[in-house]
Specification:
single chain; about 110 residues; mainly alpha
Amino acid sequence: METLTHTDYMNRYSTLDAAERASMHRTYYAQFVSDSLRNSVVSVIGEAAILRSVDPHMNDIPLRLWDNLDHFIRPIGARINNRINGSSVWSLSDTVCVAKEAARQFKDSHNV
């Protein structure tokens, strides 16, 4: 899989339709998801909550649950971000995007 830098992601984003934007968002943040991270997200959020989610952005799961993953995801994300983008800057919104991507991968693997 080709690495997608944040600059490339943002440059392409404005030229895409809504479905392509959603796909590119997933592609960018999927680079930060490992099996271990996905398992941690499922453990904190809960299998049932993820599988029950009907909102395409998983906003029917309380934001505080996603935020609670920051202590785990931030150091990993910053390290991967440094490798991909040359910067270890990481925000809480990055954490939430990565956590939700991990949850989507889990949900997709259950064909829900």
